[in-house]
Amino acid sequence: MNSDKAVPSPTAASPSTAATPGSSDSAFGAAEPVSAASWWVRHPDLAPDSVRRAQVLFDQKGEGDQSWPVVGTGKYDKVIVVITCNAATHYRVELGSAVDPDQIWTEGDSCGGPNINTYESPAIDRSSPPVTVHVTAPANTKYFVTLYGLTAAKPLPTTTP
Questions:
Q1: Distance CA 48, CA 12 (A)
Q2: Tens of pLDDT along 44-99?
């Protein structure tokens, strides 16, 4: 596996067969997709630690294949990518720079649950940060794609006796 191209890892939200209040299942199955950013604001206890430390850079509703410009990624060390769909389907999200149109990407078999998956990018090249986001999904698939900017955690200061 190339270090800058990986599949998402599951968050702390656990799967179940029935939607229970506060479970990630309540983010899926509706006719319209749910923004992960909005959902985690309502359920902060289920948000991954990295998301709690990050800043929302982009939160856009889309359908099928779409591309958008994105700004502000160069101020951060990494980007977290989240996509939630209204149905279980294969997806691919690419973040491109002026030099490399698919500089960072993630894909998976289901952005429609049961977990809300996150992908944390490798370190961003601040001289050529991502400037576009492109989602590949089947026609009529509705989704929200969310990007978070993440600054590397600074170590706690040490004191000497």
A1: 7
A2: 998 999 999 999 999 999 999 999 999 999 999 999 999 999 888 999 999 999 88
Quick one: which of 126, 141, 114, 127 has its CA closest to 20? Answer: 114
Where are the chain's structural domains? 24-150
In the predicted model, what is the mean pLDDT of residues 103-120? 86
Rounded CA gap, 24 and 20, in Å? 8
C-alpha dist (Å) from residue 148 to 38, 46, 52, 140: 13, 16, 10, 25
CA–centroid distance for 83 within its chain: 5
Number of H helices, E strands in the chain: 2, 9
pTM of structure: 0.77
Q: Which CATH architecture has domain 24-150?
A: Sandwich (2.60)
Residue type, 87: A
